[in-house]
Amino acid sequence: MTDLLTMTAVEARAALDDKSISAVELTEAYLGAAQATEALNAYTEITHDKARDMAKASDARLAKGEGGALEGLPIGVKDLFCTEGVETTACSNILNGYKPVYESTVTQNLWTDGAVMLGKLNCDEFAMGSANETSARGKVSSPWTVDGDGQDYAPGGSSGGSAASVAARSSLMATGTDTGGSIRQPAAFCGVVGIKPTYGRCSRRGIVAFASSLDQAGPIARTVEDSALMLQSMVSHDLGDSTSVAEPMPDLMGQINDGIKGLKVGIPSEYTMDGMADEITAQWQEGRKWLEDAGATCVEVSLPHTKYALPTYYIVAPAEASSNLARYDGVRYGARVEGGSLDEMYANTRAAGFGEEVTRRILIGTYVLSAGYYDAYYIKAQKTRRLIQNDFIEVFKEVDLLLTPATPSAAFPLGQKDVDPVTMYLNDVFTVPASLAGVPAMSVPSGLASNGLPLGLQLIAPSFREDTLVKAGRVVEKAAGFAAIASRAAGV
Q1: Contact at 8 Å (CB) between 23 and 30?
Q2: What does the pLDDT look like over 392-424, one tens digit per residue?
């Protein structure tokens, strides 16, 4: 089992082709690993029977030489993606018992390419959180620990279950969603690779909505190559999603090892912030050297409106959440708590169904959209968002890529920051700008902090240039040589 769990997705796919392993064997190894790491609480449900049936079907296709790009590869699904016949709750009590009658476009793309579904992965409730502490299914613990302190550490959020499962070797790859950094931040905290593609690359159809102008699906995997392989299958143009784009996807796997010689990389001065850990700055400088050694030219650049990104995000995102979550009223699907009147039933259902953080963001969003405050807050935030987008448009006229830290610190202990929501929101300071601009970005593990926890570097590319992103990510990955394994990973 251990040998099967150590394979990357690309290695496992090759082994399936040459018949040295079977999809059933690989799937059984990961089902066992998911059970062995249950203490992390990364899964909300392990779909044993479905996984075995899908693996058997994969072996049949492989025997005929008809295997797809992801044939036989076991994948975990964030509990934000609708999965036909399998409970999908967005880790909220208000959706308890909801089993979709259809499949999300992204997961359907994965199954069409032969991937095997291991189960549903824990996340912050409705994707609202930076530590996977707001889930109605309980907190997720990182598989990484610090020697001697006995504490559980945050895996990041909202895709904490996805990142934790990949780092713990209880899923080979996993789907995530990124609204303000919810793929990249947990990837950095857990020492894995996470990609947020260009807004519109992956269909949002069948993904439980948080903030519709920001939400974007993406892969979390152990290597840049694995992430590129999975992303290639996830993307599609979908007429069922009005924000889906028809832009052709570059051949990521064909270009991933092309190198970055001659590329110009920008180092944004605004990503240096007060209180940032010295080791984050040191990693950033090291990353710059790696890119220069690979033939790129690094130059200082400015994104002047970066300082407004976080407050802008925490007006726009809650406003959209307030609108999107209005559909959960106890009438159409999910939980229902009766009352003496229709309004009382609405109030009772939402009070019982929504957690504290979701309630907070709905209230903030409703406030900024209300009469008298709409112009002062929401419209001003939208105008500022345009300025932030313009910063990226202008800087990408000068450079091909940006290099920044992924997070302002390594992972923190669970429970340390949940008492102060503003402190928690600051975890997104480096990831939010790219989300507001809709440009692709990725986090690549770059080393370990002094306490032994992973650190990540973020690469940001112009819209629809995921090819540039993965080429640079591969360079960073090779130079960093990150080979550390989480102490609570399966098989360790």
Answers
A1: no
A2: 999 999 999 999 999 999 999 998 755 567 677
Catalytic residue among 22, 78, 92, 417: 78
Between the CA atoms of 284, 450, 222 and 156, what dihedral angle is there, to the nearest 10 degrees?
A: -90
Give the predicted TM-score (pTM) of the model.
Answer: 0.96
Tokens for 369, please give them: 């959209």
| Candidates 182, 322, 409, 446; catalytic one | 182
The answer to whether 249 and 201 are in contact (CB under 8 A) is: yes
pLDDT digits (tens, 9 = 90+) for 82-126: 999 999 999 999 999 999 999 999 999 999 999 999 999 999 999
Which of 158, 227, 443, 446 is catalytic? The answer is 158
Q: What is the CA radius of gyration of the chain?
A: 21
Domain ranges for the chain: 2-256+466-480
Residue 158 among the catalytic residues: yes
User: Is 370 a known active-site residue?
Assistant: no
Contact between residue 162 and residue 175 where contact means Cβ atoms under 8 Å apart? yes
What CATH number matches the domain at 2-256+466-480, 3.90.1300.10, 3.40.50.980, 3.30.70.20, 3.50.50.60? Answer: 3.90.1300.10
Catalytic-residue membership of 289: no
